[in-house]
């Protein structure tokens, strides 16, 4: 498909030099790459095709898909990687674009049900006198907010942290929702949000919600997302992992425990019901504890075969099966007494089916595995190949599909991403960032570091980058491929670093980022989620350090099974999966440094394999065109020349 800009692209023209954005938007700079993407999206929607767009940082991809989406006259669903991005898109970007275009388009924001206050469960929590110290004030705050909110979206209530244990008590899941039998159904915030969503011409969702609905994962509203004529998935590099989650069958100790607690809460208002359910609920709680104790010697995650080989574990799972079956029988007898008990009865039957499916051995096309937490466990059955069900979903929709991100390819090759999603017939567009990386940044590859497997590797990395931290005056992200290395580095820096340290896990992510931005001279240490979705433009961030190439952890049982499948068909697991996946992950981390046309800084790539292994060239070829150096003095001089003047602000 030819995406050359021409007069046929209305969207590209609107984003051009003579368009309304250039005339009405302060600071708007027309970009050829943005116009090319808008042209491609416009044609993809019009012709019902599928498109993959890798748009480098600074392309302005949000406008490049919103403009053609709003002008298409079609029903479009835009899906983002996180709820935070979803809120930003709906509350900030979308109104701006609509205003400039003067468009009359009905829009709506829709999240998963666990994001909305459930009035029924809130009343249950109040009646139960949920007396945990951290719940008392929270319940009062929720009560006051419930009287004034129009949406019930918990993101409105800053007084109760997003990760507060109170939220699961006052929100619902697909399992515990009472549906039309709920006494608060007429006032339900979820029902209201879904009604609005059904009427929207442009609907903003997130990937979790999109795949929960498409995989028919008990979200209970499969009628909302079908009917769209186009789907646009931003931050699409996250799609394979999230799709795998929602195409899996999973059962957690938390789900089972909540079943018992919800059953007792529903029974509390009915004479005699609680006394009947108390003993089987207690047996279930005890069985859960015994399973977790039996798994104490197991690694934090692994194939289900480890559980089968662990002394006593299968026997404890059998006892859990028996206890869950006992509660299911008791609930079946009480179910006619209330809609809440009927719902709990249905949940018990479903959970029993899932437990038996997950403990009886995995089918040939799935990977059976487990995860452990401090007090619980999760059992999963994950499809070995996601491409077949995802291709079927996409084709059955009859819609246009756009997958976009700054990181979809390895050196311009999209095959790793497209193979996972079954996108064999998709059109491809690769757009370079408009940033002048050779002028704005410098990539430093330190010399003399040992092999990353060396026991003193993290210590040596900190020694190597210390001159750069001093030259930059802080303002640094240190990104690690493991939490163990992060902790080691934090301990070493805490002993002598003159800069304020912000360490992942010491505070909520959003708070760490706010404090880091405000400090101006901080050093933030992060792993995993901090490699992406972190946006700190300006002087607050001028140095990014990456300790190792981000090859996936070898203890991932799903990855291990997929690599073995690749090996069995005669291909190289490293070349076909591990290398392109690591390149895409590295591109995410590197993308933290230059976020704006005015940003400048140094990227420290510490892994010596970039220079000593043949595959190092593939990583370097996939990165933005920074100027490369191995000279620490050159890197220091670059930072010193651009170090903010104290007192001048950040």
Summary keywords:
single chain, Four Helix Bundle (Hemerythrin (Met), subunit A), globular, disordered N terminus, seven-stranded parallel sheet, 27 helices, 13% strand, alpha/beta, Rossmann fold
Describe this structure in words.
With 650 residues, this protein is an alpha/beta fold. Among the domains are: 250-379, Four Helix Bundle (Hemerythrin (Met), subunit A) (Up-down Bundle); 437-642, 3-Layer(aba) Sandwich (Rossmann fold). Helix content is 48%, strand content 13%. Strand 8 and strand 9 form a beta hairpin. It is globular, with a radius of gyration of 26 Å. The two termini are 45 Å apart. Residues 2-8 and 217-221 have low confidence and may be disordered.
Which bin fits the share of residues in helices? 40-55%
Biggest sheet descriptor = 7 strands, parallel
What's the total helix number? 27
**What's the level 1 CATH class of the domain at 437-642?**
Alpha Beta
Determine the strand fraction and express it as a percent band.
5-15%
Which strands sit side by side, in order, in the main sheet?
3-4-2-5-10-1-11
Q: Tell me the overall shape.
A: globular
Distance between the termini: 45 Å
In CATH, the architecture of the domain at 437-642 is 3-Layer(aba) Sandwich
Q: Spell out the CATH superfamily of the domain at 437-642.
A: P-loop containing nucleotide triphosphate hydrolases
Total strands: 18
Which blocks of ≥5 consecutive residues have pLDDT under 50? 2-8, 217-221
Can you tell me the CATH topology of the domain at 437-642?
Rossmann fold
Structural class: alpha/beta
Could you tell me the radius of gyration in angstroms? 26 Å
> Residue-averaged pLDDT, rounded?
91
């Amino acid at each position: 498909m030819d995406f050359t800009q021409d007069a046929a692209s209305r969207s590209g023209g609107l984003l051009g030099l003579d368009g309304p954005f250039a005339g009405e938007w302060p600071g708007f700079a027309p970009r050829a790459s943005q116009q090319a993407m808008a042209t491609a999206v416009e044609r993809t929607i019009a012709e019902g095709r599928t498109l993959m767009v890798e748009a480098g940082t600074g392309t302005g991809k949000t406008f490049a898909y919103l403009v053609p989406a709003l002008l298409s006259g079609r029903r479009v669903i835009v899906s983002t990687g996180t709820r935070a991005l979803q809120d930003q898109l709906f509350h900030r970007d979308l109104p701006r674009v609509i205003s400039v275009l003067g468009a009359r388009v009905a829009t709506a924001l829709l999240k998963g049900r666990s994001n909305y206050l459930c009035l029924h469960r809130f009343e249950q929590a109040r009646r139960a006198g949920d007396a945990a110290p951290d719940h008392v004030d929270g319940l009062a705050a929720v009560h006051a907010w419930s009287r004034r909110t129009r949406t019930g979206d918990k993101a409105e209530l800053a007084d109760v942290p997003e990760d507060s244990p109170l939220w699961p008590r006052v929100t619902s899941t697909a399992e515990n929702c009472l549906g039309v039998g709920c006494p608060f159904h007429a006032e339900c915030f979820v029902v209201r949000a879904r009604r609005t969503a059904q009427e929207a011409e442009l609907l903003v969702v997130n990937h979790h919600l999109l795949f929960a609905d498409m995989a028919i994962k008990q979200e209970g509203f499969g009628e909302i997302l079908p009917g769209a004529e186009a789907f646009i998935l931003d931050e699409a590099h996250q799609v394979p992992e999230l799709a795998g989650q929602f195409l899996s069958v999973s059962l957690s100790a938390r789900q089972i425990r909540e079943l018992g607690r919800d059953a007792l809460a529903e029974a509390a208002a009915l004479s005699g019901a609680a006394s009947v359910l108390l003993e089987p609920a207690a047996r279930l709680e005890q069985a859960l504890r015994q399973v977790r104790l039996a798994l104490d010697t197991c690694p934090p995650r692994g194939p289900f075969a480890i559980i089968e080989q662990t002394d006593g574990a299968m026997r404890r799972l059998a006892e859990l099966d028996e206890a869950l079956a006992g509660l299911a029988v008791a609930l079946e007898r009480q179910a006619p007494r209330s809609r809440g008990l009927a719902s709990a009865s249905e949940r018990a039957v479903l959970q029993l089916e899932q437990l038996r499916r997950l403990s009886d051995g995995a089918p040939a096309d799935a990977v059976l595995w487990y995860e452990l937490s401090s007090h619980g466990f999760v059992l999963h059955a994950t499809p070995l190949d996601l491409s077949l069900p995802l291709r079927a979903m996409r084709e059955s929709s009859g819609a246009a599909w756009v997958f976009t991100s700054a990181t979809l390819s390895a050196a311009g090759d999209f095959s790793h991403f497209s193979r996972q999603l079954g996108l064999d017939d998709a059109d491809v567009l690769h757009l370079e960032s408009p940033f002048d990386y050779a002028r704005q940044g410098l990539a430093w590859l330190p010399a003399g570091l040992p092999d990353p497997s060396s026991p003193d590797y993290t210590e040596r990395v900190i020694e190597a980058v210390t001159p750069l931290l001093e030259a930059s005056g802080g303002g640094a992200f240190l990104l690690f491929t493991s939490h163990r290395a992060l902790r080691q580095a934090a301990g070493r820096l805490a002993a002598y670093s003159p800069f304020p340290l912000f360490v992942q896990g010491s505070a909520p992510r959003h708070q760490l980022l706010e404090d880091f931005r405000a400090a101006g001279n901080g050093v933030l240490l992060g792993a995993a989620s901090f490699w992406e979705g972190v946006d700190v433009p300006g002087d607050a961030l001028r140095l990014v350090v990456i300790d190792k190439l981000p090859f996936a952890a070898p203890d991932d049982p799903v990855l291990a099974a997929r690599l073995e499948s690749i090996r069995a068909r005669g291909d190289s697991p490293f070349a076909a999966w591990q290398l392109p996946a690591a390149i895409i992950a590295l591109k995410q981390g590197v993308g933290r440094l230059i976020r704006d046309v005015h940003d400048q800084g140094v990227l420290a790539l510490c892994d010596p394999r970039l220079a000593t292994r043949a595959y190092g060239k593939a990583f370097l070829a996939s990165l933005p065109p920074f100027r490369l150096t191995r000279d620490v003095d050159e890197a220091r001089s670059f930072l010193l020349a651009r170090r903010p003047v104290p007192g001048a602000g950040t």
